[in-house]
Amino acid sequence: MKTEQINKIMSLLKKENVDVVSFQFVDIPGNLKSVAVPTKTEINKKDFEDYLENGIGFDGSSVEGFVRIAESDLVLMPDLTTFKIFPWKVDNIVEARIICDVFRPGGQPFEGDPIHVLRETIKRLEKKIGKGTTFNLGPEIEFFIFQTTDGMTVMPLKTDVYGYFDYTPLDKATISVNRAIFYLQELGINVEKVHHECARGQYEINFRYDSAFKTAVNFITYKLAVKTAVSENDLFASFMPKPIFGVAGSGSHTHQSIFDKEGNNIFFDPEDDYHLSETARYFLAGQLKHTRGIAAVTNPTVNSYKRLTPGYEAPVYVCWARRNRSALVRVPEYFPGREKATRLEARWPDPSMNPFLAFSVMLEAGLDGIENKLELANPVEEDVYHFDDAKLKKFYIETLPGTLGEAMSLLEKSEIARRALGDYIVKKILEAQRAQWEPYRIQVHKWELDRYLAR
Q1: Which residue ranges form the domains of the chain, and what is each CATH number?
Q2: Region 411-430: what's the mean pLDDT?
């Protein structure tokens, strides 16, 4: 099978006249990394075929969260199923990519590789529920398009004066979005719909749900394709959770379901009021119990917590509902004949997350609920934003962390995060986040000067 896949890739390189292939991997914060290999000379062709078979070595000591200089050698092992030729060209250079797992030279998986972490969590899912079980996800990734002047970002886009679901005339922003859709489709990502979001210059392109690993790959590919398409029109795409004060931030609402090996949605129950199975209820209870402890993974930046505030449809309160969009998790309405669409919409994650790590902790939290048969609290269909402290206490509703500092403290104590990610990655996440939090915490901001300087 592997030989057949390698032969197919080598044939595509020749047929499509590919100049270079990027062996891509993901660091712990979720940045896309790459080792590029030219393919045209006979020597390179021979080396490239060997890389497909045996992997390619690289120095991991300079990659954030990876290894120390004394243990720097690592190996990129390509996942041959992820080979894609990019639909865009720079100076007529044809580039392809292949996603890689990271191994140590002895052949052991590298414990700091986010892709390995997700693969291991999926194995635990299959062990608990059954071989061939899939954790399906469909993220709704929002982003802003800004114009730039002399290399400096200008916010917002001057020509964009539109709001939620507005039909927009053909300008540079909509041309960019249309080009991004084309790129995504060419890369095998099934785009289902696109619309203008609440804020000026804010958009959302929805692609079809898939298994956890494929969706994580699609997530990082989506961001790359959007940034590329937008930059080709001399604009700038940002996935920052809250780039503009006073308007809606960018979330990554993530729809979740579990299918058995026959393709049946095990979250569906026709007799339940919410059409949720017992398994789905346990899973949801687990996520609600552990969300505070994993928030530093699903919302990993200082800026993430500027989005998680009342008033802009971003969730703050740990509860669930059907129609209430202030809830942490929403259960979309069931339509007869669409049993496979029964799902849980996690509304708290944002686009700055590393999808491999975020999907791992979200799944692990749900599995803990299933394993321990956690009881699900009643839904809260009222707008929780208008609850006072007494009412929150009455409904036993907790809140998400208010800052990255608080989220870090909760992550450090989270057994679920350590079970999903391992001590190594939790330690590296906390080190990277302290490097964000401490300079931010001691910085004197303009708001403080405006408020206190004259006192």
Answers
A1: 2-110 (3.10.20.70), 120-451 (3.30.590.10)
A2: 96
441: left (phi over 0), alpha (psi -120 to 50) or beta: alpha
H or E segment at 398?
strand 398-399
Q: What is the 3-state secondary structure (H, E, C) of the chain?
A: CHHHHHHHHHHHHHHCCCCEEEEEEECCCCCEEEEEEECCCHHHHHHHHHHHHHCEEEECCCCCCCCCHHHCEEEEEECHHHCEECCCCECCECEEEEEEEEECCCCCECCCCHHHHHHHHHHHHHHHHCCCCEEEEEEEEEEEEEEEECCEEECCCCCCCCCCCCCCCCCHHHHHHHHHHHHHHHCCCCEEEEEECCCCCEEEEEECCEEHHHHHHHHHHHHHHHHHHHHCCCEEEECCCCCCCCCCCCCEEEEEEEECCCCCECCECCCCCCCECHHHHHHHHHHHHHHHHHHHHHCCCCCHHHHCCCCCCCCCEEEEECCCCCEEEECCCCCCCCHHHCCEEECCCCCCCCHHHHHHHHHHHHHHHHHCCCCCCCCCCCCHHHCCHHHHHHCCCEECCCCHHHHHHHHHCCHHHHHHHHHHHHHHHHHHHHHHHHHHHHCCCHHHHHHHCCC
User: In angstroms, rounded to a whole number, what is the distance separating the alpha carbons of residues 27 and 63?
Assistant: 7
> Could you give the 3-state DSSP secondary structure of residue 214?
helix
- Closest alpha carbon to 300 in 354, 242, 238, 244: 354
224-236 pLDDT, tens per residue? 999 999 999 989 9
> What type of residue is 333?
E
Q: Which amino acid is at 180?
A: A
What's the rounded mean pLDDT across residues 148-170? 72
Q: CB-based contacts of 450: which residues, under 8 Å, 6+ apart?
A: none
CB 198 within 8 A of CB 247: yes
Residue written as token pair 């709704």: 140
| Cα(300)–Cα(29) distance, integer angstroms | 8
Full-prediction pTM beyond 0.85? yes
Among 274, 270, 271, which residue's Cα sits nearest to residue 378?
Answer: 274
